C-alpha cells in the first residue's frame, strides 16, 4: 500500500507540474520569424470587453473617481476582420477636441483586458498630459485595441487566453501570412488617424505585460512610431520559455 501511495502522489505531482508548463515548440519547428503562429481559440471575450469599454467609458471614469465623472470623453467603436477571419475591435477615445493631438495606442495585458486600462492612469491623463510642449495642444487621443484568445508561452493559468502573439514575429506587410495582431494594429492606427486630427509625428505605443511586449516589438518594427513606454514587459524576443528566441 505504501508503494502504491507513493506512485499515486508522484503521478499527481507530475500532472500538476506538467499542467503549469507552456506549450513547447521543438527547435526544428522554428521559422524565420521565430515560432509558428500561436493557435487561435475561439472566444468573444476580447470583442465583448472592448465594446463594453467603448459604450460605457463615462461610467468607467465615474468608477475611478468623482473628479473623472465630470470628464466627458467621446468614444468610437471600430471593427475589423483579420486574415484569419477573426473579428477584431478597438475603441478610440478622444476628448472631443478639433486640435491636432498625439495618438497613444494601448495594448492590454493577457487575461485582463477590460479592467486593466482603468488602473493605468491613462484615462485620467487624456485631457491634461502635455506630449507636445505646446500649451494649446494638451492631451491625447487613446486607441485601445483588443487582442485575441490564443495559446501563450507563459505558465498556467496564462498558457492560454486573451493576449498578443509576440512569438510569431512576421512584420512583413506584403506577406499574407503576416502576424494577424500586427495586421490588426496597423489597421486600427490608420483608421484612428483618419477619424481624428492626429499629430502623425507623435504616435506612441504603450502596454502592460504581454501587451507591453507586443508594444515594444511593434514599435521596433514599424515606421512612424515615435516612442514606446510600457509597464512590466517580458522580453518579446527571448522570453524564458521561448524555444525560438531571436535577436531584435
Description:
InterPro entries: AB_hydrolase_fold, Plant_Biomass_Hydrol_Est. Keywords: Hydrolase, Signal. The structure is a single chain. The chain has 248 residues and is α/β, with parallel strands linked by helices. The chain has a single domain, classed as Rossmann fold. 29% of the residues lie in helices and 19% in strands. The protein contains seven helices and eight strands. The strands form two sheets. Strands 1-2-4-3-7-8 form a six-stranded mixed beta sheet, with helices on both faces. A two-stranded antiparallel sheet has the order 5-6. A hairpin with an 8-residue loop joins β5 and β6. It starts with a helix and ends in a 20-residue tail after the last strand.
- Give the C-alpha Rg: 20 Å
| Lateral strand order in the biggest sheet | 1-2-4-3-7-8
Number of helices, counting only DSSP H or I runs of 4 residues or more: 7
Note the beta-strand portion.
15-25%
Structural class: alpha/beta
Compute the number of strand runs.
8
- Poorly predicted ranges: 1-23
User: How would a textbook summarize the main sheet?
Assistant: 6 strands, mixed
Task: Provide mean pLDDT, rounded.
Answer: 87
Question: Briefly, what is this?
Answer:
The chain has seven helices and eight strands, in the order αααβββααβββαβαβ. It is of the alpha/beta class. Strands 1-2-4-3-7-8 form a six-stranded mixed sheet, with helices on both faces. Strands 5-6 form a two-stranded antiparallel sheet.
Amino acid at each position: 500500500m505504501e508503494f502504491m501511495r507513493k506512485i499515486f502522489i508522484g503521478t499527481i505531482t507530475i500532472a500538476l507540474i506538467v499542467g503549469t508548463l507552456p506549450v513547447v515548440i521543438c527547435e526544428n519547428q522554428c521559422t524565420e520569424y521565430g515560432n509558428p503562429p500561436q493557435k487561435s481559440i475561439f472566444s468573444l471575450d476580447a470583442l465583448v470587453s472592448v465594446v463594453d469599454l467603448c459604450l460605457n467609458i463615462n461610467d468607467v471614469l465615474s468608477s475611478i473617481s468623482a473628479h473623472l465623472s465630470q470628464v466627458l470623453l467621446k468614444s468610437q467603436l471600430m471593427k475589423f476582420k483579420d486574415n484569419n477571419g477573426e473579428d477584431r475591435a478597438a475603441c478610440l477615445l478622444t476628448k472631443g477636441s478639433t486640435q491636432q493631438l498625439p495618438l497613444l495606442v494601448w495594448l492590454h495585458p493577457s487575461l485582463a483586458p477590460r479592467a486593466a486600462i482603468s488602473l493605468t492612469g491613462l484615462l485620467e491623463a487624456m485631457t491634461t498630459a502635455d506630449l507636445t510642449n505646446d500649451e494649446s495642444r494638451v492631451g491625447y487621443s487613446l486607441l485601445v485595441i483588443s487582442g485575441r484568445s490564443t495559446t501563450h508561452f507563459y505558465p498556467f493559468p496564462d498558457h492560454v487566453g486573451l493576449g498578443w502573439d509576440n512569438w510569431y514575429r512576421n512584420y512583413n506587410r506584403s506577406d499574407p501570412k503576416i502576424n494577424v495582431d500586427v495586421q490588426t494594429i496597423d489597421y486600427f492606427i490608420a483608421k484612428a488617424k483618419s477619424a481624428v486630427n492626429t499629430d502623425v509625428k507623435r504616435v506612441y505605443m504603450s502596454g502592460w505585460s504581454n501587451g507591453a511586449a507586443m508594444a515594444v516589438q511593434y514599435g521596433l518594427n514599424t515606421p512612424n512610431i515615435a516612442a514606446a513606454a510600457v509597464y512590466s514587459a517580458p522580453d518579446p524576443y527571448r522570453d524564458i520559455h521561448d524555444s525560438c528566441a531571436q535577436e531584435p
